[in-house]
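Support case: user asked for a sample of complex input and structure output to validate their parser. Sending the pair below.
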Amino acid sequence: MHIIRSNDLVKPALGKMVVEAPYVVKYRKPGQFIILRIDEVGERIPLTIADVDKEKDTITLYYQVVGTTTQKLSVLKAGDALRDIAGPLGHPTEIKNYGTVVCIGGGIGTAPLYPIARAMNEAGNRVITIIGARTEDLLMLTDKFETVGEETIICTDDGSSGRKAFVTDPLKEIMAAETIDAVVAIGPVPMMKAVSELTREKKILTVVSLNAIMIDGTGMCGGCRVTINGETKFTCVDGPEFNGHEVNFDELVSRLGTYRIEETVSKEKHQHKCKIGLGK
Amino acid sequence: MPELTPEERKNNFAEIPLGYSEETAVLEASRCIQCKKPLCVEGCPVNIDIPGFIKEIADKKFLKAFEVLKKDNMLPAVCGRVCPQESQCEEVCILGKKFEPVAIGKLERFAADYERSIEHAAGAEIEEKKDKKVAIIGSGPAGLSAAGDLAGEGYQVTIFEALHQPGGVLVYGIPEFRLPKEIVDYEIDSLKEKGVEIVVNRVIGMSETIDDLLDNEFDAVFIGSGAGLPGFLNIPGENLKGVYSANEYLTRANLMKAYMFPEYDTPIIKGKNIAIFGGGNVAMDSARVAARLGAENVYLVYRRSREEMPARLEEIHHAEQEGINFQLLTNPVGFTDDTMGNLAGVECLRMELGETDDSGRRRPIPVEDSEFVLAIDVAIIAIGSSPNPVIQKSTADLDTTKRGTIVIDEETMKSSKPGVFAGGDIVSGAATVIEAMGAGRKAAKSINDYLTTGIW
């Protein structure tokens, strides 16, 4: 059982949970994720570890409230508990002194990007950050990034905050103005795909973190399989980070939609319960 | 043995063989002629004293029968249900030459179920506590058995399990209707009563390594991490929506109870036309789960003939009764899609049998111009699995084979790394519950010797 220390909606559909997980805290490195299960009937879902507090033995998780499980997460309170947390899982980010690193976060991807940007900074890299979201309500951690790296550029698709642009626009400008040694991009799949396409010609090392559907997270089921350079890899044990130029993004987008129908069925069942307010 | 009819089975996950009554058990046990040189004992992978326990049943001493079983078999309620007795003990039973062999498996099940029904009547005998600690990686049959014996010897035992529920294949692989989870829970509770600590959600090898375990807390380690790496066909279209490895399909259905969606949150695609590829017990389990999830057509596609199928005859028989459509001598060539990334069909080729290959079975050869398409919306790949590589990757001085299995000394179960033992599927490749259990028990004996003498 993992006690929740705090759980707040930092934006209308964006939750931030701080939960006890001493084993994860002990071993976690930036880039890794956990798999959690709320209760006996719950699904297992992966969430990237955004931060750890070694003194309090807690990890910080951000989650977008989209379907049944994230909906259930959002109503938990401090003092409630999560039944299961497994981790840290996946390979940590390879932190090196590359030179100039552009860190790009899209929407909820900005959460796991933060510890990576910080680590890159500490490793001696010159770090430029671009944070983007569809609209201001989906922007996160903008103030935290101010303390990391040389420059933080904020953009929104609708212009409600920062520049009215996609993250690829400032990236294009930086690419034209100077040499970039590496790019780390974490966010919605179309965003990671667009960034990878942009950097392909100049052969800039581009690291992306994939968010495939997972069940066990330990390499035993193949549910999270992706095609990398024509070969099948498992996101949970071979990733979650891969070379953006080798990822079959279209296939990943397709596979992420596997349970569209079931997601609706589940949502309806749980919404129905909440509205009436009867029973459990 | 009385069974649920196919109609009764169709929409539920209840166990099928209904078990013997006391009268029937005694009658069946009395058939055993108590051979002076019992062949059945040799036929058993762990040499259970079969005539011994059967005699106790015939004498109506059911608890005593259980005790005899338990000496050699850590998990009699499990093995009585899932062991392929027809190719082990029952195959060599003398009575089987002219009549039906003694129903050894069903009698084993009877004795174990009897003990469970009166709950822990056979108390645990624990030697005095020893000051050494053993780490067991994996809570499948090998790990559980090793833990049981070591705890019985007085050692402090901790089992590390990667998933959130212990049991390994017993909970994620074998469906409820073949092995009720209540039985696995019972065995695990017995272990906890013996003082075994079970830590779930712990993936040894991801962060903490075996060296960490040996340096920090433990005096010996047993690796029972199993063969959980799924095999894929490597044909076009295998990543389409609707194509599952059997591991994923069964984990969703069995462990995560997706058959109770949306009451349970984990989804599973409830296809109308499902094809399972493979011919072993996992393929049978997958097919029978698919049938219970409301599929209209369930095809079992296997490239050889019925005789070559490695699955238990009893399970093939059950599958046929439940309406599974066996497409034998058929091989998949590629999956086709509906232009939206969903599985729509599988192109197949008919096969014929040629010469024997190294597995001792006749090699399937494609029949020219025999292509045809099976319209399906779910495919389940059940062609076998290999050893989970997590431990091997993180332990440099652990000798492994090309297949990824851990190399051990067959007698001592010792790996190449001092203090580290291994057994079960991680050593043999995918095999049976009883073999894993036997390996766990053999390793426990060897670990006891090592920790007592201090000599590797």
